[in-house]
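Hi Y.,

Following your request, here is the sequence exactly as I used it, all 258 residues.
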Amino acid sequence: MEDLDDYKGIVFNNRKSTDFGVLVKYPFNPVHPTPDITTTHVNSRSGDYLVDYGSYQNTTQTFNIIVKVPSEWTRAEFNRQLINWLMPPQMDGKRQYSYFYFDEDEDYAFYGIIKDVPTIEWNENTTDFGTGTISIYTDPFYYRLDGIKFTDLPQAGYVNNLDSRETSPDWHFIANGNFILYVNGFPYEFDNMEGEFWVSGETGDVYDVHNNLYNNQCHFPNLEPPTLVYGKNTIEITTDSSNTVQLAEYKPKWRRLI
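Below is the corresponding structure, written out as tokens. Let me know if you'd prefer a different format.
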């Protein structure tokens, strides 16, 4: 059996790998993302022309694992539990990315999805021990663990993005009437809102718990949701006395390249 000190647990889909008897080789060598750059060479000119789209491609991170099947499970039950953990049911009719991170790294998480079933080679001399690999298809960023849950807006009216990449936070409000969210001086207007709703940083959609959309009651600069740049960002909410904002929080999703 390999030295267990070289293997750690991971958290994925809100469950720990150790619940399933799975440990992952750590540290490991991450696959870094490829930037989207087009190059064009012109004869008689030294050096290519570059078109940088400012984006990066997903990566596939492959982890070596060891498995010690929990004593209360057969191998068949282990396989069922493993698939339930790594490949949960669809949400809203589609597969979803999930955050995952190592017990040893309390700062950053990956954001990915399992596309291929793990491979496990079982030890010939025992029925409960094996080794193998898990491959996780991830987006090109690490996400800070302190930025992947909703938190109150900064009381000071500003927040520092200490990571090197712009982010598009998700927002959560309980409000009645009209109010304006100012982010870095840009006004994001919400009109005649009533109750609880969210703003997706990915799509800019404004929706409630039943996925009803309220986009026509909102006015965003350049039709884009708020972003937080590297460094200092200002965040403020204003409303008339006849309108109320009972809850205002955000999920900043601080990130850096893998």
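DSSP finds one helix and 21 strands in the chain.

Thanks again,
Q.
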